[in-house]
Amino acid sequence: MTSEKPDALNVTELPSFAFGHRSPMWWGTMGMIAIEGTVFVLAIMSYFYLYSHSPSWPMTTPAPELLWGTINTCIMLGSYIPNHFAKKAALKMDLSQVRLWLVICMLFSVAFLTVRVFEFGALNVRWDTDAYGSIVWMLLGLHTLHLLTDAVDSLVLTVLMFTGPLEGKRFVDVSENCMYWNFVVGSWLIIYAVLYWSPRF
Amino acid sequence: MSVPVTERVVYDGTPEGTVELAETWRDPPGLMGSLSAINHKTIGRRFIVTTMGFFAAGGILAALMRLQLMRPENDLIGMDLYNQLFSMHGTTMMFLFAVPVMQAVAIYLVPLMIGARTVAFPRMNAFAYWIFLFGGLMIYGAFFFNTGPDAGWFGYAPLTESEYSPGKRIDFWAQMITFTEVSALLEAIVIITTIFKLRAPGMTMNRMPLYVWAMLVTSFMVLFAMPAVMLASTGLITDRLVNTHFYRSGDGGDPVLWQHLFWFFGHPEVYLIFIPGLGFLSAIIETFSRRPIFGYPAMVLALIATAFLAFGLWVHHMFTANLPELGKTFFTAASLLIAIPTAIQIFCWIATLWKGRLNFRTPLLFVLAFFFILLMGGLTGLMLASVSLDLQVHDTYFVVAHLHYVLLGGAVFPLFGAIYYWFPKYTGRLMNERLGQWNFWLFFIGFNVTFFPMHLLGLYGMPRRVYTYAAEMGWGTMNLISTLGALLIAISMLLFLINAVRSYRKGIKAANDPWGGGTLEWAVASPPPAHNFDVIPVVHARYPLWEAPKKTGYVAGLAANHREQLITSVIDAQPDYRGSFPDPSIWPFISAIAASILFIGSIYTPWAVVWASIPVSIALIAWFWPRKKETEEDLALEKSP
Amino acid sequence: MRGILSAAFAVSLAALPLHAFSQVATFQNAMQPAGVQAEKILDLWYLTFAICTAVFIAVLAAFLYAIRRAPRADERTAAEVSFLRQAEPASKRAVLLAVALSTILLLVLLVADVFTGRALIQMPLGDGIHIELTGHRWWWEARYSADPPSRMFTTANELHIPVGKPVVISLKSSDVIHSFWVPNLHGKKDMIPGRTATITLRVDKPGIYRGQCAEFCGYQHAKMALLVIAEPQEQYEVWAEQQRQPAPAPTTASAITGQKLFMGGTCVSCHTVRGTSAQATLGPDLTHLASRKTLAAGTLPNSREHLAAWINDPQKFKLMANMPSSPFSSEQLQAVVLYLETLK
User: Fold this and answer.
1) What residues 94-123 of chain B have any CB closer than 8 A to a CB of chain A?
2) Nearest-angstrom CA–CA distance, B453 and B486
3) A7-10, strands of its sheet edge to edge
4) How far is CA A111 from the centre of its chain?
5) What's the mean pLDDT in B528-538?
6) Would an 8 Å CB–CB cutoff place B294 in contact with chain C?
7) Alpha carbon of C250: minimum distance to chain B alpha carbons (Å)
8) Is the minimum CB–CB distance between C95 and chain B shorter than 8 Å?
9) Which residues are CB-neighbours of A147 under 8 A, at least 6 positions away?
10) B388 part of contact set with chain C, CB < 8 Å
């Protein structure tokens, strides 16, 4: 113990929230991305494992139809635009812009969730037909689960932006949601390639 | 406080201010308060007590197994019950005790060690506890209704498929994994974010206690290991419930896929248990040898290296399945290689003890047991790493011996040391030293008497998971000795329980720092107030309490009437901003109930995933939805970046 | 107190192996190799054990010496923080040396393992025999291949093999994962449904060896044993020739009655007796049941009383086995047993 008066580090003037990796929410979201990314990677590896153990792939059915999956990929890629602008608006804390772009994101959500229903129908195989069918449904199912939860998350945020109560931290939530949205779209690109294209080679 | 506080009252260092600060961070009273509690110490205490309860349950199951095996052709416990016993024992210890207890201790301890008032996501922390509790209750409920798992703790397919395991036993087991893994994954996120963002100013990563490093490394491992078992068990659930073909040969499935997915989790899992134990060792050795641990950078790198290597070993659990020989040799090499970082740690601890001045109290005794038990377990691990040797001893009692030596030597003995060490901090009273010594020696001797003979039994041909064995095998004597050892362990545990309860009620009162420790948790009262630190310290050294600073620093300007926690930068812990933390909430509890309904419902029908997701969504939305009052309070204190 | 307890512990630990060694069976025992593979594994075991014991003693000694020599302290003793500013070169050298030695020893173990692994699979397979072993819950089905294929025969739960010749065993499973393990002969290998694994062994010492399923396979995993009887080539040929023959027709009145009961009852839904109309393959082949030493995969000795008791109520000895109780009266049971005794 020193005999001098202790030094005070006064933090009153510091801000009360921050964006990006300065925020615990960013780390939480990254943690979720790490977990779910790992699930996807392991599911994809299981896909190729079963592929390598099978004399033919698909085993007994034709490969999935390209139409709906490709349309959905385009819609999801398209959703990058409103998502990107929503994030920029959140960083500027521009409420009216955030509202606009979040609503547009939700329209994209409705679109790709609808098309996803058709995708399941166009897989040309049931989950209980064989191991190929099982892993295909598992991969598409896992991704759909993420689409759904992301859609619900985003919907809740969108409504909140209109009804309040609002504070600065909510813009941080919006920007983290945009990051998560990018993950859901990015992981789809890989899964799309695996599900729709690898059986064709 | 039902009126929004729109005036910021900065903590002023007066006793009244301290009372207000404590009031701000306290959990509300009563039953509703208890269910809404989010203080990390409340959750930590509950979590520790619950996991120790599961430890006791798992121990009782083991005692029953040992009673059955003490004589050849014994008929104390029938075949079906025995198979459930060993499955429940393994499942309890691995899923409901070993990893959760480590996270529970971290939840309590890490904020205190890093100079924080809270964990990063207090409500998610509470949810993680509840969902864990419900999962554990579910599987024990199933067990008591004769629906307990009976295919071992690693449930190999196709034995676990519906053809060979009809009924709901395996479904309950597979779904319990979902409960416990969700809990562990969320806790990992909480711990990582807490360590990265909530450290006191000046606590650079280079100044973090080795225990905090251990928990950081462990939590990262959790993020990448647990998803494997979640995916595996989901595939098993769908195989059983809706007839997918993941692990059933025929129609393209492969039982070995289960093994790959399970062990990709399963090997890192044992390091999830072991690495926190290594953290305990460093914390206790430094205090009881009155000096810093030798070789801090090497110790940190060793932890990180162990974590990475742990992901490259999993096939050593599968050496007897028909896999390519060259591939297996790679895993032998990796399994031998991982000994090196652990060896580095052991040698650094010996170097520390060599030049230390030793205070031989019960915590130190428990960690010293590591140097006998874990050392032996690690060496038998090298034997198992060899493919050729493993071909003989895999799936025999040799492995049972090895796994208990490493898990108890590397984690459980250090855990008991940790309990004796931090008990005064948690409860304000010291545990009884004499009872502690008796507890330790009976446990140490009992452990070796129980498990050492099992090495020999494996070499002499006794396979695992057998409910009985023929008299002509000549295994009776060693099994009897093993059972007697188990009796000693049981007595030692009873002594521990007596010690814990008596000390909690009437133990010698502890000051802030009964052991003369050097890290921040010893700076606060025992037990700490709700807010942990009256003022957040500015950290100037690795051992803040041992190294007198040129000038003591502290953080001023945080509110006394609002849950404010200083957020700092990841590497250098520079002050960044004042984060506003949530009030207690009932929604984590309700969400856990809703999620449990979903998980348990889906044991019976896949449609449960659909309709039960509605209450889950409602609960989660209610949890997230900002309260007008809290928002107004935040707005009053708000300052934009 | 501590001294007394540790002394007691040390004494009991020392007494333990003495007693244990004297009692343990030698016929299901990895420490009693009877074949070249088990021998090579045991050689590696001794090397590894020696190295590990040496390391254990060295590290433990260093540790015990450290805690002995360090002065005692209590919680009020000031912590020695000067270590944070000093370099401690002696400790650093010692740790580095210890790590270097450990690494070298690990490399030695790795090399020894690689060499042993190679030795285990390097064996000329020339004039060996080939068996296809299928694991069932909870018994072993063995088909001995032959050239020409008409000389193939099937038996169950007891293998005879020639001494000194390679034995190649293909391992399959009809249901869940089992594991073939005869420790006196070789390490184990899993029998995974949907795959065929192969294990090759050569026995050098004649004798009766016991193996057990080593992968948990459900209720009666504990009672899934098999016997491997290694005998000189000529004796093996005699046995094999015997096994190739269909069952002889019974000659005594009671045996004939027994056969009628057998053929007319539930037995034929699961069992084969070559040379008769019983051709089902759900259960073990009984053509030469009387030549075997045990019943129910090593659960019971093969004697008249045990056979009768087993047929009467298999569930009593092996609960949940697939074999139901027989509806025979005690006289009928006697006749059936007498019939089965003719199946040498």
Assistant:
1) 120-121
2) 12
3) A7-10, B553-556, B537-538
4) 15
5) 96
6) yes
7) 34
8) yes
9) A109, A112, A113, A116, A184
10) yes
State yes or no: cis peptide before B166, omega within 30 of 0: no
Contact criterion met (CB below 8 Å) for B560 and B21: yes
Please state, in angstroms and rounded to a whole number, the distance separating the CA atoms of residues B63 and B55: 12
Of B298, B332, B391, the CB nearest to C187: B391
Contact (CB, 8 A) for B68 and B467:
yes
Q: Is the peptide bond before C148 cis (omega within 30 degrees of 0)?
A: yes
**B510–chain A nearest CA distance, Å:** 21
Q: Which of 213-272 (C) contact B at CB < 8 A?
A: 213-222, 225
- Contact map slice: A 67-126 vs B, CB within 8 A: 93
Q: Does C149 touch chain B (CB under 8 A)?
A: no
| pLDDT above 80: residue C12 | no
Under a CB-based contact definition with an 8 Å cutoff, are residues C187 and C181 in contact?
yes
B548 in reach of chain A (CB within 8 A): yes
Q: Where are the alpha helices (DSSP H) in B507-612?
A: 587-604, 608-611
B1, amino acid identity? M
Interface test with B, best of C134, C215, C318 (most B CBs within 10 A): C215
Judged by a CB distance cut-off of 8 A, whether residue B243 touches chain A is yes
Question: How many whole angstroms separate alpha carbon C167 and alpha carbon C228?
Answer: 12
In angstroms, the CA B25 to CA B411 distance is 32
What is the mean predicted confidence (pLDDT) over B621-631? 93
C175 neighbourhood in chain B, CB within 8 Å: 158, 163-164
pLDDT classification of B203: cutoffs 50, 70, 90? very high
Contact of C239 with C144, CB cutoff 8 Å: no
Q: Among B48-52, B146-150, B553-557, whose mean pLDDT is lowest?
A: B553-557
Choose from A123, A127, A134, A162 for mutation: most chain B CBs within 10 A: A134
How close is the nearest chain B Cα to the Cα of A155, in Å? Answer: 11
**Contact (Cβ atoms closer than 8 angstroms) between residue B311 and residue B539:** no
Question: What is the rounded distance in angstroms from the CA atom of residue A44 to the CA atom of residue B627?
Answer: 41
Dist CA B332 CA B350 (whole Å): 28
Q: Is the pLDDT of residue A3 over 60?
A: no
pLDDT tens digit string along B409-445?
A: 999 999 999 999 999 999 999 999 999 999 999 999 9
CA dihedral in degrees (B92, B93, B95, B98; nearest 10)? Answer: 150
| Both tokens assigned to C55 | 């390391």
Q: Is A156's CB within 8 Å of B624's CB?
A: yes
Q: What are phi and psi of B598, to 5 degrees?
A: -60, -50
Strands C300-301 and C294-295: antiparallel
Structure tokens at B527: 């037990």
Residue B554 at interface with chain A, using a CB cutoff of 8 Å? yes
Q: Does A34 touch chain B (CB under 8 A)?
A: yes
Of B192, B570, B638, the CB nearest to A168: B638
> In the prediction, which pLDDT does B1 show?
46
Of B561, B583, B573, the closest CA to residue B38 belongs to B583
Q: SS3 of C78, please?
A: coil
d(C-alpha B128, C-alpha B106), whole Å: 14
Tell me which amino acid residue B344 is: I
Return the pLDDT at C4. 58
Measured distance CA(B334)–CA(C254) in Å, rounded: 66
Model confidence at B150, in pLDDT bands (50, 70, 90)? very high
Is C188 part of the contact surface with chain B (CB cutoff 8 Å)? yes
Tell me whether residues B231 and A39 touch, CB distance under 8 A: yes
Question: What gap in Å lies between CA B192 and CA B255, rounded to an integer?
Answer: 35
State pLDDT tens for residues B583-612: 999 999 999 999 999 999 999 999 999 999
- Per-residue tokens: A184: 């859901």
